Protein backbone atom coordinates (compact mmCIF):
# COMPACT_ATOMS: atom_id res chain seq x y z
CA UNK A 1 0.00 0.00 0.00
CA UNK A 2 3.06 2.24 0.31
CA UNK A 3 3.00 3.82 -3.13
CA UNK A 4 -0.73 3.80 -3.57
CA UNK A 5 -1.02 7.56 -3.84
CA UNK A 6 1.56 7.71 -6.63
CA UNK A 7 0.06 4.77 -8.51
CA UNK A 8 -3.40 6.35 -8.42
CA UNK A 9 -2.19 9.84 -9.38
CA UNK A 10 -0.04 8.54 -12.23
CA UNK A 11 -2.85 6.32 -13.54
CA UNK A 12 -5.31 9.22 -13.48
CA UNK A 13 -2.82 11.43 -15.34
CA UNK A 14 -2.44 8.74 -18.01
CA UNK A 15 -6.19 8.94 -18.57
CA UNK A 16 -7.04 12.66 -18.21
CA UNK A 17 -3.64 14.24 -18.79
CA UNK A 18 -1.52 16.58 -16.68
CA UNK A 19 -2.86 19.76 -15.05
CA UNK A 20 -5.70 20.46 -12.68
CA UNK A 21 -8.73 18.16 -12.56
CA UNK A 22 -11.93 18.76 -10.63
CA UNK A 23 -14.25 15.92 -9.75
CA UNK A 24 -16.97 17.03 -12.15
CA UNK A 25 -17.42 20.26 -14.07
CA UNK A 26 -20.25 21.35 -16.33
CA UNK A 27 -19.65 21.76 -20.06
CA UNK A 28 -21.35 24.61 -21.91
CA UNK A 29 -20.62 24.08 -25.58
CA UNK A 30 -23.99 24.54 -27.28
CA UNK A 31 -26.91 26.97 -27.27
CA UNK A 32 -26.69 27.94 -23.59
CA UNK A 33 -25.95 31.66 -24.10
CA UNK A 34 -28.41 31.97 -26.99
CA UNK A 35 -31.28 30.54 -24.92
CA UNK A 36 -30.37 32.52 -21.79
CA UNK A 37 -30.37 35.74 -23.84
CA UNK A 38 -33.79 34.83 -25.15
CA UNK A 39 -35.27 34.56 -21.64
CA UNK A 40 -33.82 37.98 -20.75
CA UNK A 41 -34.96 39.63 -23.97
CA UNK A 42 -38.51 38.33 -23.51
CA UNK A 43 -38.57 39.11 -19.75
CA UNK A 44 -39.68 35.55 -19.02
CA UNK A 45 -37.09 34.62 -16.42
CA UNK A 46 -39.30 33.17 -13.67
CA UNK A 47 -41.54 30.14 -13.34
CA UNK A 48 -43.61 30.75 -16.43
CA UNK A 49 -42.12 30.55 -19.87
CA UNK A 50 -41.65 28.43 -22.94
CA UNK A 51 -38.38 26.87 -21.83
CA UNK A 52 -39.96 25.23 -18.76
CA UNK A 53 -42.44 23.31 -20.91
CA UNK A 54 -39.77 22.55 -23.51
CA UNK A 55 -37.39 21.24 -20.88
CA UNK A 56 -40.05 19.04 -19.31
CA UNK A 57 -40.93 17.64 -22.74
CA UNK A 58 -37.28 16.85 -23.42
CA UNK A 59 -36.97 14.99 -20.10
CA UNK A 60 -40.21 13.10 -20.76
CA UNK A 61 -39.06 12.07 -24.20
CA UNK A 62 -35.59 11.00 -23.09
CA UNK A 63 -36.77 9.01 -20.05
CA UNK A 64 -39.97 7.78 -21.74
CA UNK A 65 -42.05 8.90 -18.78
CA UNK A 66 -45.56 10.24 -19.18
CA UNK A 67 -45.23 13.27 -16.88
CA UNK A 68 -42.40 15.55 -15.79
CA UNK A 69 -42.55 18.43 -13.34
CA UNK A 70 -39.39 20.52 -13.13
CA UNK A 71 -38.55 22.06 -9.77
CA UNK A 72 -35.80 24.07 -8.08
CA UNK A 73 -33.64 21.09 -7.06
CA UNK A 74 -33.78 17.36 -6.48
CA UNK A 75 -33.98 17.61 -2.69
CA UNK A 76 -37.29 19.45 -3.11
CA UNK A 77 -38.32 16.96 -5.82
CA UNK A 78 -37.86 14.17 -3.28
CA UNK A 79 -39.68 16.17 -0.62
CA UNK A 80 -42.69 16.88 -2.85
CA UNK A 81 -42.77 13.25 -3.96
CA UNK A 82 -42.89 12.03 -0.37
CA UNK A 83 -45.63 14.47 0.60
CA UNK A 84 -47.73 13.89 -2.52
CA UNK A 85 -47.45 10.10 -2.53
CA UNK A 86 -48.94 9.67 0.94
CA UNK A 87 -45.97 9.37 3.30
CA UNK A 88 -47.31 10.67 6.59
CA UNK A 89 -45.75 12.46 9.53
CA UNK A 90 -44.06 9.88 11.78
CA UNK A 91 -43.80 7.18 9.09
CA UNK A 92 -40.44 5.50 8.55
CA UNK A 93 -38.88 5.65 5.09
CA UNK A 94 -36.20 3.12 4.13
CA UNK A 95 -33.16 4.85 2.65
CA UNK A 96 -29.56 3.77 2.13
CA UNK A 97 -27.04 5.16 4.57
CA UNK A 98 -24.74 5.57 1.56
CA UNK A 99 -26.34 8.52 -0.20
CA UNK A 100 -26.05 12.28 -0.47
CA UNK A 101 -27.48 14.00 2.61
CA UNK A 102 -30.27 15.57 0.51
CA UNK A 103 -32.06 12.22 0.29
CA UNK A 104 -32.28 11.86 4.07
CA UNK A 105 -32.98 15.58 4.58
CA UNK A 106 -36.01 15.40 2.27
CA UNK A 107 -37.46 12.64 4.47
CA UNK A 108 -37.00 14.71 7.63
CA UNK A 109 -38.47 17.80 5.92
CA UNK A 110 -41.59 15.76 5.20
CA UNK A 111 -41.85 14.96 8.95
CA UNK A 112 -41.09 11.28 8.31
CA UNK A 113 -38.15 9.35 9.79
CA UNK A 114 -35.24 8.01 7.74
CA UNK A 115 -34.60 4.35 8.50
CA UNK A 116 -31.10 3.55 7.26
CA UNK A 117 -30.43 0.36 5.33
CA UNK A 118 -27.25 -1.24 4.04
CA UNK A 119 -25.73 -1.18 0.55
CA UNK A 120 -23.99 -3.84 -1.52
CA UNK A 121 -20.70 -3.75 -3.38
CA UNK A 122 -21.71 -4.34 -7.00
CA UNK A 123 -23.93 -1.28 -7.53
CA UNK A 124 -23.29 0.60 -4.23
CA UNK A 125 -27.10 0.71 -3.89
CA UNK A 126 -29.40 -0.94 -1.30
CA UNK A 127 -28.60 -4.62 -0.63
CA UNK A 128 -31.93 -6.38 -1.36
CA UNK A 129 -30.97 -9.71 0.23
CA UNK A 130 -30.00 -8.12 3.51
CA UNK A 131 -33.04 -5.83 3.38
CA UNK A 132 -35.54 -8.64 2.90
CA UNK A 133 -34.17 -10.68 5.81
CA UNK A 134 -34.21 -7.57 7.96
CA UNK A 135 -37.79 -6.59 7.14
CA UNK A 136 -38.95 -10.14 7.86
CA UNK A 137 -37.42 -9.85 11.31
CA UNK A 138 -38.41 -6.33 12.33
CA UNK A 139 -41.90 -5.80 10.88
CA UNK A 140 -45.42 -6.77 11.86
CA UNK A 141 -48.37 -6.56 9.47
CA UNK A 142 -51.52 -4.67 10.48
CA UNK A 143 -54.14 -4.43 7.77
CA UNK A 144 -52.30 -3.69 4.57
CA UNK A 145 -49.41 -1.89 6.25
CA UNK A 146 -46.18 -3.05 7.86
CA UNK A 147 -45.00 -1.59 11.14
CA UNK A 148 -41.62 -1.51 12.85
CA UNK A 149 -42.13 -3.83 15.88
CA UNK A 150 -39.72 -1.80 17.98
CA UNK A 151 -40.73 1.79 17.21
CA UNK A 152 -44.39 0.93 16.40
CA UNK A 153 -44.18 3.25 13.40
CA UNK A 154 -45.50 2.45 9.93
CA UNK A 155 -42.82 1.78 7.32
CA UNK A 156 -44.44 3.37 4.30
CA UNK A 157 -41.83 3.98 1.62
CA UNK A 158 -38.42 3.14 0.25
CA UNK A 159 -36.03 5.40 -1.66
CA UNK A 160 -33.66 3.34 -3.81
CA UNK A 161 -30.73 5.54 -4.89
CA UNK A 162 -28.81 4.99 -8.13
CA UNK A 163 -25.40 5.85 -6.74
CA UNK A 164 -23.03 7.72 -9.10
CA UNK A 165 -25.32 6.73 -11.98
CA UNK A 166 -25.13 2.96 -11.31
CA UNK A 167 -28.59 1.40 -11.39
CA UNK A 168 -29.19 -0.30 -8.04
CA UNK A 169 -30.74 -3.77 -7.77
CA UNK A 170 -34.07 -2.25 -8.64
CA UNK A 171 -35.99 -5.38 -9.76
CA UNK A 172 -35.36 -7.11 -6.45
CA UNK A 173 -36.16 -3.97 -4.49
CA UNK A 174 -39.45 -3.56 -6.36
CA UNK A 175 -40.43 -7.11 -5.33
CA UNK A 176 -39.66 -6.35 -1.70
CA UNK A 177 -41.58 -3.08 -1.92
CA UNK A 178 -44.60 -4.90 -3.30
CA UNK A 179 -44.50 -7.49 -0.54
CA UNK A 180 -44.24 -4.86 2.19
CA UNK A 181 -46.62 -2.37 0.57
CA UNK A 182 -43.97 0.32 0.26
CA UNK A 183 -44.22 3.40 -1.95
CA UNK A 184 -41.15 3.46 -4.22
CA UNK A 185 -39.57 6.86 -4.89
CA UNK A 186 -36.37 6.48 -6.88
CA UNK A 187 -33.57 8.91 -6.21
CA UNK A 188 -32.19 9.16 -9.74
CA UNK A 189 -30.47 12.47 -8.92
CA UNK A 190 -27.23 11.23 -10.48
CA UNK A 191 -28.68 8.90 -13.08
CA UNK A 192 -29.97 10.89 -16.05
CA UNK A 193 -28.89 8.70 -18.98
CA UNK A 194 -28.69 5.43 -17.01
CA UNK A 195 -30.79 2.48 -18.12
CA UNK A 196 -31.60 -0.97 -16.78
CA UNK A 197 -32.84 -3.39 -19.43
CA UNK A 198 -33.34 -0.33 -21.65
CA UNK A 199 -35.67 1.33 -19.11
CA UNK A 200 -34.56 4.67 -17.74
CA UNK A 201 -33.60 5.24 -14.10
CA UNK A 202 -36.47 6.76 -12.15
CA UNK A 203 -39.19 5.04 -14.18
CA UNK A 204 -39.36 1.83 -12.14
CA UNK A 205 -41.04 3.15 -9.02
CA UNK A 206 -44.10 5.30 -8.51
CA UNK A 207 -41.97 8.45 -8.90
CA UNK A 208 -38.39 9.24 -9.88
CA UNK A 209 -36.38 12.36 -9.01
CA UNK A 210 -33.49 13.77 -11.02
CA UNK A 211 -30.99 16.52 -10.17
CA UNK A 212 -29.58 19.19 -12.50
CA UNK A 213 -27.18 20.67 -10.00
CA UNK A 214 -23.95 22.11 -11.47
CA UNK A 215 -22.04 18.88 -10.85
CA UNK A 216 -24.51 16.57 -12.65
CA UNK A 217 -24.30 15.19 -16.20
CA UNK A 218 -26.41 18.12 -17.39
CA UNK A 219 -27.12 21.22 -15.37
CA UNK A 220 -29.71 23.97 -15.08
CA UNK A 221 -27.57 25.79 -12.51
CA UNK A 222 -29.77 24.33 -9.80
CA UNK A 223 -32.76 22.21 -10.61
CA UNK A 224 -34.62 18.97 -10.32
CA UNK A 225 -37.35 16.98 -12.03
CA UNK A 226 -40.04 14.61 -10.89
CA UNK A 227 -40.95 11.93 -13.44
CA UNK A 228 -43.93 9.63 -13.13
CA UNK A 229 -46.53 7.76 -15.19
CA UNK A 230 -49.22 8.46 -12.60
CA UNK A 231 -51.58 11.18 -13.81
CA UNK A 232 -53.14 11.91 -10.39
CA UNK A 233 -49.76 12.34 -8.71
CA UNK A 234 -48.38 14.44 -11.56
CA UNK A 235 -51.31 16.88 -11.31
CA UNK A 236 -51.06 16.99 -7.53
CA UNK A 237 -47.30 17.65 -7.55
CA UNK A 238 -47.58 20.32 -10.26
CA UNK A 239 -50.36 22.02 -8.27
CA UNK A 240 -48.47 21.85 -4.96
CA UNK A 241 -45.24 23.11 -6.55
CA UNK A 242 -46.98 26.26 -7.87
CA UNK A 243 -48.47 27.57 -4.57
CA UNK A 244 -51.61 25.44 -5.12
CA UNK A 245 -53.00 28.25 -7.25
CA UNK A 246 -56.25 27.64 -9.08
CA UNK A 247 -56.03 28.56 -12.75
CA UNK A 248 -57.69 31.94 -13.29
CA UNK A 249 -57.17 34.93 -15.61
CA UNK A 250 -56.43 37.35 -12.78
CA UNK A 251 -57.62 36.11 -9.36
CA UNK A 252 -55.25 34.70 -6.75
CA UNK A 253 -57.08 31.72 -5.32
CA UNK A 254 -55.22 28.87 -3.65
CA UNK A 255 -56.94 25.73 -2.42
CA UNK A 256 -54.34 24.48 0.08
CA UNK A 257 -50.92 25.33 1.52
CA UNK A 258 -48.69 25.02 -1.51
CA UNK A 259 -45.01 25.51 -2.20
CA UNK A 260 -43.07 27.78 -4.51
CA UNK A 261 -40.80 25.18 -6.03
CA UNK A 262 -41.19 25.38 -9.82
CA UNK A 263 -38.04 25.66 -11.91
CA UNK A 264 -37.57 29.20 -13.26
CA UNK A 265 -37.57 29.68 -17.04
CA UNK A 266 -34.00 30.99 -17.01
CA UNK A 267 -32.79 27.70 -15.51
CA UNK A 268 -34.90 25.68 -17.91
CA UNK A 269 -33.32 27.60 -20.82
CA UNK A 270 -29.92 26.36 -19.70
CA UNK A 271 -31.38 22.87 -19.34
CA UNK A 272 -32.77 22.87 -22.89
CA UNK A 273 -29.35 23.69 -24.32
CA UNK A 274 -27.72 21.05 -22.13
CA UNK A 275 -30.23 18.38 -23.12
CA UNK A 276 -29.26 18.93 -26.77
CA UNK A 277 -25.79 17.66 -25.85
CA UNK A 278 -26.72 14.89 -23.43
CA UNK A 279 -25.93 12.07 -25.87
CA UNK A 280 -22.56 13.65 -26.62
CA UNK A 281 -21.81 13.82 -22.86
CA UNK A 282 -22.84 10.18 -22.46
CA UNK A 283 -20.50 9.07 -25.25
CA UNK A 284 -17.63 11.06 -23.80
CA UNK A 285 -18.23 9.65 -20.32
CA UNK A 286 -18.37 6.10 -21.65
CA UNK A 287 -14.96 6.55 -23.28
CA UNK A 288 -13.54 7.97 -20.06
CA UNK A 289 -14.93 5.05 -18.05
CA UNK A 290 -13.45 2.49 -20.47
CA UNK A 291 -10.07 4.23 -20.35
CA UNK A 292 -10.09 4.20 -16.54
CA UNK A 293 -11.06 0.49 -16.63
CA UNK A 294 -8.18 -0.32 -18.93
CA UNK A 295 -5.54 1.71 -17.07
CA UNK A 296 -6.59 0.61 -13.58
CA UNK A 297 -6.78 -3.05 -14.68
CA UNK A 298 -2.97 -3.07 -14.50
CA UNK A 299 -3.26 -2.96 -10.70
CA UNK A 300 -5.08 -5.87 -9.08
CA UNK A 301 -5.60 -4.08 -5.74
CA UNK A 302 -7.70 -1.35 -7.32
CA UNK A 303 -11.09 -2.14 -8.81
CA UNK A 304 -13.21 0.21 -10.86
CA UNK A 305 -16.92 -0.03 -10.07
CA UNK A 306 -18.34 -1.46 -13.31
CA UNK A 307 -21.75 -0.93 -14.91
CA UNK A 308 -24.11 -3.32 -13.09
CA UNK A 309 -25.33 -6.34 -15.04
CA UNK A 310 -28.08 -5.66 -17.65
CA UNK A 311 -27.59 -1.93 -17.28
CA UNK A 312 -26.02 0.91 -19.17
CA UNK A 313 -24.74 3.51 -16.78
CA UNK A 314 -24.29 7.19 -17.54
CA UNK A 315 -20.89 6.79 -15.82
CA UNK A 316 -21.53 10.03 -14.00
CA UNK A 317 -18.74 9.46 -11.51
CA UNK A 318 -16.00 6.86 -11.87
CA UNK A 319 -15.24 5.13 -8.59
CA UNK A 320 -12.30 3.01 -7.48
CA UNK A 321 -12.65 0.42 -4.71
CA UNK A 322 -9.51 -0.47 -2.80
CA UNK A 323 -9.86 -3.47 -0.53
CA UNK A 324 -8.68 -3.11 3.07
CA UNK A 325 -7.89 0.57 2.62
CA UNK A 326 -7.10 2.07 6.00
CA UNK A 327 -8.43 5.51 6.93
CA UNK A 328 -4.83 6.72 7.19
CA UNK A 329 -3.85 5.63 3.66
CA UNK A 330 -7.11 6.95 2.24
CA UNK A 331 -6.37 10.35 3.75
CA UNK A 332 -2.84 10.22 2.33
CA UNK A 333 -4.19 9.44 -1.16
CA UNK A 334 -6.74 12.27 -1.01
CA UNK A 335 -4.24 14.80 0.37
CA UNK A 336 -1.51 13.93 -2.11
CA UNK A 337 -3.93 14.02 -5.03
CA UNK A 338 -5.24 17.42 -3.92
CA UNK A 339 -1.65 18.70 -3.68
CA UNK A 340 -1.26 17.56 -7.28
CA UNK A 341 -4.46 19.46 -8.19
CA UNK A 342 -6.36 16.24 -8.78
CA UNK A 343 -9.47 16.79 -6.70
CA UNK A 344 -10.46 13.25 -5.77
CA UNK A 345 -13.38 12.88 -3.38
CA UNK A 346 -14.36 10.14 -0.95
CA UNK A 347 -17.88 8.73 -0.89
CA UNK A 348 -20.21 10.73 1.38
CA UNK A 349 -19.84 10.08 5.09
CA UNK A 350 -22.63 7.49 5.64
CA UNK A 351 -25.81 9.08 6.98
CA UNK A 352 -25.84 6.98 10.17
CA UNK A 353 -22.44 8.47 11.08
CA UNK A 354 -23.73 12.07 10.93
CA UNK A 355 -24.47 13.45 14.38
CA UNK A 356 -28.01 14.68 13.63
CA UNK A 357 -29.02 11.25 12.27
CA UNK A 358 -27.46 9.16 15.06
CA UNK A 359 -30.78 8.48 16.76
CA UNK A 360 -32.54 7.31 13.59
CA UNK A 361 -33.45 3.63 13.20
CA UNK A 362 -31.04 1.52 11.20
CA UNK A 363 -30.07 -2.02 10.37
CA UNK A 364 -26.54 -3.38 10.61
CA UNK A 365 -24.54 -1.15 8.26
CA UNK A 366 -21.21 -2.96 8.00
CA UNK A 367 -21.16 -2.85 4.20
CA UNK A 368 -21.94 0.87 4.09
CA UNK A 369 -18.98 1.42 6.42
CA UNK A 370 -16.73 -0.62 4.11
CA UNK A 371 -17.95 1.28 1.02
CA UNK A 372 -17.18 4.57 2.73
CA UNK A 373 -13.75 3.32 3.80
CA UNK A 374 -12.79 1.81 0.42
CA UNK A 375 -14.16 4.00 -2.37
CA UNK A 376 -12.68 7.08 -4.00
CA UNK A 377 -14.23 9.05 -6.87
CA UNK A 378 -12.12 10.10 -9.85
CA UNK A 379 -12.27 13.18 -12.11
CA UNK A 380 -15.24 12.43 -14.38
CA UNK A 381 -16.21 15.52 -16.39
CA UNK A 382 -17.69 15.17 -19.86
CA UNK A 383 -14.95 17.06 -21.71
CA UNK A 384 -12.06 14.59 -21.76
CA UNK A 385 -13.06 12.68 -24.91
C1 LIG B 1 -28.05 10.93 -4.60
C2 LIG B 1 -28.50 12.36 -4.52
N1 LIG B 1 -29.71 12.63 -4.04
C3 LIG B 1 -30.16 13.88 -3.95
C4 LIG B 1 -29.41 14.95 -4.36
C5 LIG B 1 -29.95 16.33 -4.19
O1 LIG B 1 -29.99 17.01 -5.39
P1 LIG B 1 -30.01 18.62 -5.42
O2 LIG B 1 -28.60 19.05 -5.19
O3 LIG B 1 -30.47 18.91 -6.81
O4 LIG B 1 -30.95 19.05 -4.38
C6 LIG B 1 -28.12 14.71 -4.88
C7 LIG B 1 -27.24 15.74 -5.33
O5 LIG B 1 -26.90 16.70 -5.46
C8 LIG B 1 -27.64 13.39 -4.96
O6 LIG B 1 -26.44 13.15 -5.42
Describe the protein in words.
There is one protein chain. By secondary structure, the chain is α/β, with parallel strands linked by helices. The protein has a 7-stranded mixed sheet with strand order 1-11-10-7-6-2-3, with helices on both faces. Strands 12-14-16-15 form a 4-stranded antiparallel sheet. A 3-stranded antiparallel sheet has the order 9-8-13, with no helix packed on it. A hairpin with a 2-residue loop joins strand 4 and strand 5. Helix 4 packs across helix 8. Pyridoxal-5'-phosphate binds next to helix 4 and helix 5.
Task: Pick out its properties.
385 residues; alpha/beta; seven-stranded mixed beta sheet; four-stranded antiparallel beta sheet; 37% helix; binds pyridoxal-5'-phosphate
Describe the structure in brief.
By secondary structure, the protein is of the alpha/beta class.
Amino acid sequence: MKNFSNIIIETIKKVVGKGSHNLHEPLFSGNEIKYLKKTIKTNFVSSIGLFVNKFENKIKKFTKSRYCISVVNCTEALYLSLVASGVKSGDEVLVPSITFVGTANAIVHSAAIPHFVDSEFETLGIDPIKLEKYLQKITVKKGVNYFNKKTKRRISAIIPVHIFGNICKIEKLLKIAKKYNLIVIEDAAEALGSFYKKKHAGTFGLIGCISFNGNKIITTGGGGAIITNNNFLAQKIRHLSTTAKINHKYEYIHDTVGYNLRMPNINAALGCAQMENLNKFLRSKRKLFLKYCSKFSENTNIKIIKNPINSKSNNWLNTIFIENLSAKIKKQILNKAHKNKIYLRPVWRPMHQLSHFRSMPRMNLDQANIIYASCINLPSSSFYF
